[in-house]
Design brief:
Blueprint: E1 6-9, H1 17-26, E2 31-35, H2 36-40, H3 46-55, E3 59-67, H4 74-94, E4 98-102, H5 113-126, E5 133-137, H6 148-158, E6 163-168, H7 169-174, E7 190-195, H8 206-215, H9 226-239, E8 245-247, H10 252-255, H11 259-277
Parallel strand pairs: 1-2, 1-8, 2-3, 3-4, 4-5, 5-6, 6-7, 7-8
Helix pairs in contact: 5-6
Length: 282
């Protein structure tokens, strides 16, 4: 049985939404990370897809993804607002309150912490009707926000109880960030931890890092950084973080396999995590 605090992101699995949900539930997983595309691409449409997710019995730990809130151009900001409203509607349909928001990659975006914080606060206010929580994640190739330290500064600047932080093992270690400073973050401000590994040690070009992140990640217990990831998990758990721990593995090869085969790897990760995080959510 996969601990209830561990969820799998649908991005790791190939096949239809029905096949993904079946494989996840059969593996004993109790929660899932869902993408807007999971709903939009279903032949039955968004309402049917949302019903499938609700009827699967899986809790939806969070919803992916709103990108690049640091846009400067007014028309792009307006577009992000419209997109956020659409995502909030889908979130309500599947029964989750957590929206993941990633930093932007463009160097032309907003480059000051107070403005980024204000954008995060604006998103939380937009989602007030569903009690939306905004979980902000630093991409390791971000144009401005590229470390969890900077993302945390933006969360602090937002000064909103429903704005928090995502800690992602891939992005953290790709930026060679040490684990110990995580202890400075109030644990209640960490809304999610995403776990995966990848071959980024020898990467020197941004395009190669993006390629690795989006197409070649591996399960966290399988890679050369497994010791470091486990140390991160131990540190965060010791701080009182109880989940969700999201297994988020972008890998083209995995998506060409039957989803039940990939879920066996997820179960291995859960078994690897269990001695540290325990069987159930605290």
């Amino acid at each position: 049985m996969i601990p209830s605090s561990v969820c799998i992101d649908t991005i790791a699995l190939g096949g239809t939404l029905d096949a993904k949900l079946a494989a996840i539930t059969e593996a004993g997983c109790k929660s899932v990370m869902v993408w807007g595309n999971d709903l939009m691409s279903d032949p039955g449409g968004v309402k049917v897809a949302a019903r499938k997710i609700r009827e699967s019995g899986l809790a939806v730990a969070g919803f992916q993804l709103l990108r690049n809130i640091e846009a400067v151009e007014r028309h792009l900001v307006d577009y992000k607002i419209d997109l956020a409203r659409s995502l909030f509607s889908m979130m309500e349909a599947v029964g989750t309150d957590l929206l993941l928001v990633s930093s932007g990659a463009s160097a032309r975006g907003v480059r000051d912490i107070p403005t980024v914080g204000a954008r995060l606060r604006m998103l939380a206010d937009l989602g007030e009707a569903i009690g939306a929580r905004i979980a902000y994640e630093a991409l390791s190739w971000g144009g401005f926000i590229d470390t969890w330290e900077l993302a945390h500064q933006a969360v602090v600047a937002a000064d909103h109880p429903r704005v928090g932080l995502v800690i992602d093992s891939f992005h953290s270690f790709a930026r060679h960030q040490p684990v110990e400073p995580l202890k400075k973050i109030p644990v209640e401000r960490i809304f999610m931890v995403q776990l995966s590994d990848g071959a980024f040690d020898a990467v020197t070009e941004v395009d190669d890092l993006i390629e690795s992140a989006r197409h070649h990640r591996i399960f966290p217990h399988d890679g050369q950084h497994a010791f470091d990831i486990r140390h991160m998990v131990e540190t965060l758990h010791g701080m009182g973080f109880a989940g969700p721990w999201a297994i988020e593995v972008f890998n083209d090869d995995y998506r060409h396999l039957a989803p039940e085969v990939v879920m066996r790897k997820a179960v291995e990760t859960a078994d690897w995590l269990r001695p540290v995080i325990g069987a159930e959510r605290a």
